[in-house]
Design a protein that fits this description.
single chain; alpha/beta; Indigoidine synthase fold; eleven-stranded mixed beta sheet; 47% helix; binds pseudouridine-5'-monophosphate; binds manganese (II) ion; metal ion binding; hydrolase; lyase; PsuG
């Protein structure tokens, strides 16, 4: 297994010194945001984590290896290239064996972080149960990974391109705790609230780190969702974003978009229909998650 994993110098040093490490995904770079904002954001997010005293590890597949920590050139390549595969659990073996470039989703990043013994992972939003999944069966592999792999995912909730109610039910069945940071309501990515409650409210990073420790000390396998609402000043108008998401969903249906293309298609449409306003919100919420994730990692690894 070790032959597939390459740690960056920074991550290697962090491991040797017992410094807290925060995993970051690469699908958000290659398929979630346009160039050059994607690369700029990825670098800023890494910097926020460093300033908090933790070490960032952006994860991706390069030339048959799982890279834990990317160089500046690699970040640029993942942001710019149109030839990067979106890599979820099922894609890992093929992409590694054929030495293709792969940008890891939440599910794949959790797997790779787990292999590198990294427990805290920051991203924007998780995949979930899509609207209409009762006929399409479109349920993100992210949820099954949360059920099975011991990595906590700090996110801004899930977008209402998904069915948030069914997503919560799925996570409940699989025993995945959904913890709201300073909120008892599930945030909906662009907005701070939704119609759904989280399972628990935690008001400090310490409380979250302690909950994660307890979960894994009890050998309760699987991850946790830490839902951190977008800062008020960067949140979008709820009516506006709801309308935009409705049109994006209709376009996806009219264009017969399915499988792994669905989420990137919807993300790009939402950005286009909001004149890029949603991109600004997206960038800010990821940075906000990086701050919280680093705090959780500090508490998790030092106590
Ligand atoms: N949601 C977002 N931004 C993203 C994604 C989801 O708001 O970039 C990406 C993540 O990498 C997530 C993936 O793991 O999409 C889910 O894809 P799918 O629904 O195909 O499993
Ligand atoms: Mn899907």
């Amino acid at each position: 297994m070790e032959q597939y994993i390459v740690l960056s110098e920074e991550v290697k040093a962090a491991k040797e010194q017992g410094k807290p490490i925060v995993a970051l995904e690469s699908t958000i770079i290659s398929h979630g945001m346009p160039y050059p904002q994607n690369v700029k954001t990825a670098r800023e997010v890494e910097q926020i984590i460093r300033e908090k005293g933790a070490v960032p590890a952006t994860i991706a597949l390069v030339n048959g290896k799982i890279k834990i920590g990317l160089s500046d050139e690699e970040l640029e390549m993942f942001g710019k290239s149109t030839d990067v595969a979106k890599a979820s659990r099922r894609d890992l073996p093929y992409l590694l064996a054929t030495k293709k470039m792969g940008a890891t989703t939440v599910a794949a990043t959790m797997i790779c972080a787990d292999l590198a013994d990294i427990r805290i992972f920051v991203t924007g939003g998780i995949g979930g149960v899509h609207r209409g999944a009762e006929t399409t069966m479109d349920i993100s592999a992210d949820l099954e990974e949360l059920a099975n792999t011991n990595v906590a995912v700090i996110c801004a909730g899930a977008k209402s391109i998904l069915d948030l109610g069914l997503t919560m039910e799925y996570l409940e069945t699989k025993g995945v705790p959904v913890i709201g940071y300073q909120t008892n309501v599930l945030p909906a990515f662009y907005t701070r609230t939704s119609d759904f409650a989280v399972n628990f409210q935690a008001d400090t990073a310490e409380e979250i780190a302690a909950t994660l420790k307890t979960k894994w000390e009890l050998n309760l396998k699987g991850g946790a969702v830490i839902a951190n609402p977008i800062p008020e000043e960067h949140a979008m108008d709820e009516e506006e974003i709801t309308e935009v998401i409705e049109s994006a969903l209709q376009e996806a249906e009219a264009n017969h978009i399915s499988g792994k293309d669905t989420t990137p298609f919807l993300l790009a449409k939402v950005k286009e229909l909001t004149d890029g306003k949603s991109l600004l919100s997206n960038i800010e919420l990821v940075k906000n998650n990086a701050r919280l994730g680093a705090e959780i990692a500090l508490s998790f690894y030092t106590k």
